Amino acid sequence: MAAAGAAAAAAIAQAIKASGVVVRLEPEEFAKLLGRMPAPLVVSAKGGLFGTRYQYLTSYKGLAFFTVSRQPLPLPGGAELITAGRSWIPG
């Protein structure tokens, strides 16, 4: 299962490198986007220097979307969650 998660995270990262398109959304808009997908794949990581930050990444129609939240986001029932040790989003 961990290998599949790593492969999924690597595939999303490779797609980001290839397309160069990463869209940052507010947590509420990210949650709405997940609600549009029947079974979203979500990569999450927890980090932060001055308090915990929850980071989420997904792809939708060829674009990569991410958000950062102070609270964990509620995910739709059909969501597949991959927990990463850490994440990096190109600036």
Give an overview of the whole structure.
This protein has helices at residues 2-19, 27-35, and strands spanning 22-24, 41-47, 53-60, 63-69, 80-83. It is of the alpha/beta class. The chain has one domain: 2-Layer Sandwich (Signal recognition particle alu RNA binding heterodimer, srp9/1).
**Weakly predicted, low-confidence segments:** none
Count of DSSP strands: 5
Distance between the termini: 30 Å
Task: Give the helix level as a range of percent.
Answer: 25-40%
Shape: globular
Oligomeric category = single chain
Question: Features of this protein?
Answer:
Signal recognition particle alu RNA binding heterodimer, srp9/1; globular; 91 residues; alpha/beta
Topology:
Layout: H1 2-19, E1 22-24, H2 27-35, E2 41-47, E3 53-60, E4 63-69, E5 80-83
Parallel strand pairs: 1-4, 2-5
Antiparallel strand pairs: 2-3, 3-4
In short:
The chain is of the alpha/beta class and 91 residues long.
